[in-house]
Design a protein that fits this description.
The chain contains 8 helices and 35 strands. It has 561 residues and is of the alpha+beta class.
C-alpha cells in the first residue's frame, strides 16, 4: 500500500478507503494466501498527531486479528530534513514498533524505532521484510546489515519510501540520489535482497539491476496519490508462484471494488477500480531456486538404493548409474542387469552404420530419480542411426500378459534441438510384434505395444489389450524440450491412466483394458519397430525404468517424495 497522504490531510480525514483495503486483506487472507502487507510511507500529509491517530485506528483492523504488516516513515510523516536519529515524533507514537511487538511477524527494530524487520513463513520457507526510514542513517544501515546477517538463508524484500523513480509513464525506473546511496551501502552487496518496493514518486515504474553477486534485483515504484481521490487507497498484490517461478502483480482499490458491487461508482471512480496498464499489471519471471542458490541452496535429492525401488510386484528395474565417465560411449557388448533379480537383462542391439557413441553414458538425471545417471540415445532418421537395448532372449518379461494390472515408469529428457522431421515417433519403450501377427485389427504393421513420442513430442501409450480387438491409446500434452520428465502408465486390470510427473493426463480412454498382448518377443528400450523391422530410434536421455505387475498408487511412483 503506497502513499495514502491525501486521505489524512489536516481536517480532511477519509479513513474509509484504507479501512476497506485492510479488510480486503483479512477477508482474502485464506483464499488468496495473503500473508503480509507493507505500507510504503507517507501515510499522512503533515505527520501531525491528528492525522496519524485515524490511520493508526485504521491499522487496528489488522492488529485485532494479529495480521502481519509493516509501515515506514515517508518525508510527509516526519521532519524530512532529518534521518532516523531524529528522536521522538508523533509518527513513532502512533505507528512505532511498540504497537507491532505482539504480532508473530515482528522481528525487531533499530534502537531509534524508525527501521523495523518482519519475518513470515509462506510457500514452505521464511521471508524477511525490512521497512526502512525515509533517510536511514549509518546506524540504520548497519542495523539492516546485522538483521540480514542474522538470517543468512532468508530472501529479503526491502521496503523504503525513496529508491527509484520513472520520468514518465512507461519509462524504465532509475535510482534516485538517495536510491544510489542505498544501492551502494546496502543492496548491491547483499544478495538476499531480491526485490525492493518504494513509493514517493509517480508514475509507477520498475527496473532490474545486477548486484555484486551477479544476480538480478527487481526495483519497483508504486504510488497513486496523483490519481482521483488520492489514489483511493489502492493496493498492489504480489502473488508469488514458486511452481511457475513467477510473481504476478495486480493493482486495484478494494474500496472501489466494494462500491462497484453495490452499484455506487461515480463517473470518476469507474476509471480507478483497477489499473491494467503494463506498469501496474505485469508478471516478473524469477527462477527462485536459482536466484536464492547463493544463500539458500536446495540440497539435491540423494540417490536411493535399488533395493528400495523393488516394491512388491516389480518385474523389471533398470538404471544407468554405474559410475562410467560422463559422455563415454557404451560398450558394444553392453549388458544392463535387471535389478529386480528376475533375469530381464537388457543387451545392446547392433544398428548398421552407427558407432559405439550412439549410446553414451550420462551423469544427467531427473531431480527425483532414484539412480543418478542416464543413457543418452543418439538416434533419428533419415538415415536411420542410433542405438537401442532389448531384453535378452527368454526374458520372463517377454511373455508377461499383465492380467492383474501393471505400472510402467520411465524418466526421460528430449534435447533442445529435437525435431519432428528426424525424431518423431520414437519409443522410450516398446514391444516387438505386429497387430497382424497378434490377430488384432487396425494398421497391421503397428507394434502391439509402445510408449512413444509423437511428432509434437507428446507421449503416446498405444497397446493391444487381450480383451480388445485393436489398439487402445492414451495421450499426454506436448512436453517442453530440454526438461526431465517422469511418466507412468498404470492399469488396475480394468482401466489405464497415463501420468506425467504424477499427474493424470486428460486423454485417458474409458475403454476397459485387461492384459497386454504378447508374442513372446523382446521389449525394446529406445527402439521402435514398424512392419516387423526397426523404423525409428530414440534421441535423448533415458533414466531409470521400472515395470510392475500391478497398479501402483502415485505415492509409490519412483519420483514420489
Amino acid at each position: 500500500m503506497p502513499d495514502t497522504q491525501y486521505l489524512f490531510d489536516g481536517a480532511s480525514i477519509r479513513k474509509e478507503p484504507v479501512e476497506a483495503a485492510l479488510r480486503y486483506v483479512l477477508d482474502h487472507a485464506r483464499d488468496q494466501n495473503i500473508v503480509f502487507l507493507s505500507h510504503l510511507g507517507d501515510l499522512t500529509e503533515n505527520g501531525r498527531s491528528e492525522e496519524l491517530a485515524p490511520i493508526g485506528e485504521a491499522f487496528g483492523i489488522l492488529d485485532r486479528r494479529g495480521a502481519g504488516y509493516s509501515v515506514l516513515a515517508g518525508n510527509h510523516d516526519i521532519d524530512s530534513r532529518t534521518d532516523d536519529q531524529r528522536g521522538p515524533s508523533p509518527y513513532l507514537d502512533a505507528l512505532g514498533p511498540k504497537r507491532m511487538r505482539g504480532l508473530d511477524t515482528f522481528a525487531g527494530a533499530s534502537k531509534d524505532g524508525y527501521n523495523t524487520a518482519h519475518l513470515f513463513r509462506a510457500a514452505g520457507r521464511r521471508w524477511l521484510v525490512l521497512a526502512m526510514d525515509w533517510r536511514p542513517s549509518a546506524a540504520g544501515i548497519a542495523w539492516a546489515r546485522q538483521v540480514i546477517a542474522r538470517h543468512p538463508d532468508t530472501p529479503v524484500v526491502l521496503t523504503v519510501h525513496d529508491l527509484v523513480y520513472a520520468d514518465h509513464a512507461g519509462a524504465e525506473a532509475e535510482l534516485s540520489d538517495h536510491g544510489k546511496h542505498l544501492w551502494d551501502e546496502l543492496i548491491a552487496d547483499h544478495d538476499q535482497i531480491f526485490l525492493t518496493l518504494n513509493g514517493h514518486y509517480w508514475p509507477a515504474g520498475r527496473t532490474v539491476r545486477r548486484n555484486a553477486a551477479g544476480n538480478d534485483v527487481h526495483l519497483h515504484i508504486t504510488n497513486y496519490q496523483d490519481r482521483f481521490f488520492g489514489g483511493s487507497a489502492m493496493i498492489r498484490l504480489y502473488r508469488f508462484d514458486l511452481a511457475r517461478d513467477t510473481i504476478d502483480v495486480s493493482t486495484f482499490s478494494p474500496w472501489l471494488l466494494a462500491k462497484a458491487a453495490r452499484g455506487e461508482l461515480n463517473a470518476m471512480e469507474r476509471h480507478e477500480v483497477e489499473l491494467t496498464d503494463p506498469q501496474n499489471a505485469f508478471s516478473v519471471p524469477i527462477d527462485f531456486e536459482r536466484r536464492f542458490a547463493g544463500f539458500a541452496p536446495v540440497a539435491p535429492r540423494r540417490p536411493r538404493p535399488a533395493a528400495r525401488m523393488l516394491v512388491p510386484g516389480t518385474l523389471a528395474y533398470w538404471r544407468f548409474d554405474g559410475g562410467r565417465p560422463d559422455g563415454a560411449a557404451a560398450d558394444a557388448n553392453l549388458r544392463v542387469p535387471d535389478l529386480s533379480g528376475h533375469g530381464n537383462d537388457l543387451v545392446r542391439a547392433a544398428v548398421p552404420g552407427s558407432g559405439a557413441d550412439a549410446l553414451r553414458w550420462s551423469a544427467q538425471h531427473h531431480a527425483d530419480q532414484p539412480g543418478h545417471g542416464s543413457l543418452y540415445f543418439d538416434g533419428g532418421r533419415p538415415p536411420l542411426r542410433g542405438g537401442y537395448l532389448k531384453t535378452v532372449k527368454g526374458a520372463p518379461l517377454d511373455a508377461a500378459t499383465f492380467r492383474s494390472g501393471f505400472t510402467v515408469e520411465a524418466f526421460f529428457k528430449l534435447p533442445a534441438d529435437w525435431t519432428s522431421a528426424r525424431n518423431a515417433w520414437s519409443a522410450i519403450l516398446s514391444r516387438q510384434g505386429t497387430l497382424a501377427a497378434a490377430g488384432k485389427e487396425g494398421d497391421p504393421v503397428e507394434p502391439v505395444g509402445t510408449l512413444s513420442l509423437s511428432d509434437g513430442h507428446a507421449l503416446q501409450w498405444a497397446v493391444a489389450p487381450l480383451n480388445q480387438k485393436s489398439l487402445v491409446t492414451s495421450w499426454s500434452h506436448e512436453l517442453p524440450l530440454d526438461t526431465w520428465w517422469h511418466t507412468a502408465v498404470v492399469n488396475d486390470g480394468r482401466h489405464t491412466t497415463l501420468y506425467v510427473e504424477g499427474c493424470p493426463v486428460a486423454r485417458n480412454p474409458a475403454t476397459k483394458v485387461n492384459g497386454l498382448t504378447t508374442l513372446g518377443l523382446s521389449w525394446l528400450l529406445g527402439g521402435y519397430e514398424y512392419g516387423g523391422g526397426l523404423d525409428q530410434l530414440f534421441r535423448g536421455w533415458i533414466g531409470d525404468v521400472r515395470v510392475c505387475g500391478r497398479a501402483l498408487p502415485v505415492g509409490q511412483f519412483m519420483n514420489a517424495r
